[in-house]
Each structure stands twice: as structure tokens, then as C-alpha cells.
Write a structure and sequence with these properties.
Blueprint: H1 9-22, E1 42-47, H2 53-69, E2 72-77, H3 83-95, E3 100-104, H4 112-120, E4 125-127, E5 138-142, H5 150-155, E6 163-169, H6 175-191, E7 195-197, E8 201-202, H7 207-220, E9 224-229, H8 232-244, E10 252-256, H9 260-267, E11 273-276, H10 279-296, E12 309-312, E13 315-317
Parallel strand pairs: 1-2, 1-3, 3-4, 4-5, 5-12, 6-7, 6-8, 6-9, 9-10, 10-11
Antiparallel strand pairs: 11-13
Helix pairs in contact: 1-3, 2-10, 7-8
Length: 337
Amino acid sequence: MHRYARRTAGVLAAASLTVGLAACSSVASVPADTSGSTKGITIAGVFGNTFDPFWTSIGCGASQEAKKLGVTYKEFSSTSADTAAFDQSFNSAKLTNPNGMFVNPLNPDQFVSQYQTLMSQGVPIVTLNATTPPSQYKIVGTDVTHLDFVDDTVALVPKDASGKLAIINGVPGLVPVENRLNPVVQAILKGRSGLTALDPVYTQFDSSKATQAVSSLIVANPDLQVIVAADGPDGAATAAAVKAAGKAGKITVIALDATPPEVAALKDGTITGLVAQAPKKIGAEQLSTLVDFLKTQKTPSAIKPTSDTTGIPQKLLTSKNVDDSANSDWVYTASCK
């Protein structure tokens, strides 16, 4: 998921409070076997909002990679997206004294102080998004710089489209979501000059609220031509509302992510295109990045934070290519198989 280049005061205030409460705690990891093997390595994964299959898929990828590499993987997750739930999961993970952690909060800066403490103790931290200041060992997440798929996304919108474009998003100010959403919206508006963007609608990732909001937009804007949904829950809700209104195939729906309901709507023609991440690949790469480091670390010692980044590419899925085996890692799963 991805959001706009500002951060809300509420999110930052909650994150600051969490950091302040937890910064005093410490953890000493049990040294791993550093002879080049993976013996004794334990990795903790922390994430939330597992109602969204994107996050479940990250866990699936990490779990599968752990089995492949012969390391212990412990998952700390919740269905909630709020900072308190992330805080609880993070603190529970620390108590297990893992050798390394990948941590994926919605607010990248929620645990900056804790990362700094852990890194100083020789516990590498891998994150999905960069922190400010840099506090992680490495960043492993979605590539938001190579956007070769954008032109093909614009091509899905009729050349003569004229009217309104709606944006359905979870919450304002989530930079990772906006880094994916903004280029798509901007490219469509540039390539289809007859479209005018409405103010974004925020749903708190609540499917019922999103369905109602899209239904209201359709009624209030008879010239609504395009809807761009910023995440899986909003994409599925948008498709449901468009279908219920009898507008499938008449309103172009572009959604980010590729959850099972979104993929079903893509196949039945309600959604025109899905701009998908590869969460299973991300989870696997986050875990293997930690393991590769720990295999060479002779004794736990302070780790220098970096902004080194591994970007996993996005793909545009359509009804024509969604079932291609080469694209399977870009299709999310609601549970690990």
C-alpha cells in the first residue's frame, strides 16, 4: 500500500508516543552460529493489518524462505493497523531475543529509537520503507522509481475519456502508499486531459465505508469516468460498488495491489487493471537479507545504519496476463498454502 507525501499530525504524534514509551527497553540477542551456516539463526517478522492479504503474503514469503534456508522464523502480526497494535507486536518480538528483525509498520518512523538501540547491540533491522533518520540495516520493499508499467496503465483508460476521476484511499499522509498512487494518478491525468480529479476520499481501509463512498460518488457525479483505488480493501470495495451500480465496463477502475477479491473483479471485467506489488518476494528477500548478514557476523557488534535499498518491481496485471505463471508472485494470497 502507498500514500501521499505528507504525514498527518495524528500519525506522527502516536508514533512519537510509542517511541517514547518503548525506547528504554533493551534486548540482547542470542549469538547465531557464524561459521557460514544458518544454524541457530532466529528471525522475527513484525507487521500488521493482516486483514489485507498484502501483509499476509509477506509473512508467507518469509516463512517459505525460512524453511528453504533452515532458519527459525517467528511472526508477530495483528489484524489491526493502529500504532498501539504495532507497538505490542514489536515489543513481543523483542522479548524473544531474535538475531535479526524485519519490521513493517504503516508509519515508517514509528520505531526509529528502538531500531537504533537494537542496531547498536548487533541486531540487524530490515524495513519495508526508509526511516528518518536512517536507522535500519537495509530497506527491502517495492520499487517506486522504475515505473515502466505506467504508460500501459494509462492506455487502459479510453483516449476520449472526459469527466471526473475519483481517488479512493485509506488514510492521508502514508508516504509508502502515495509513492505508488501519485505517479499512476498523475500519468492518467496527463495522458487523458479531458479528466478532472475530484478530492480524494479516505476510508480508513474500511470496506463498508469505501463501498458507500464510491456509491455516493457515482450518484453525485454522472460524468465519473475513472476511479483509482489506492490499496486492496479499497480496490475490492470500489469494484463492488461499481458492479452494484451497473457501471462495470463503463467506469474504468484502476486499483493498486492484487488481493483475491480484486483479482476476481479483474477477471470479470469490473476492474480494468491492477498495479501489483510482489509481497511474497518482499517477505522472502527481507528474511534472506538478514540471514546473509548474520551468517558472516562473527560476534554481535554495533551495525551502521544505511539507506541501502533492494527494490522489488511492480507489475501491471490485466485479465489477459493475471493467470500467467510468471506473474504468480504478484498475486496476493489470503493465507499461506
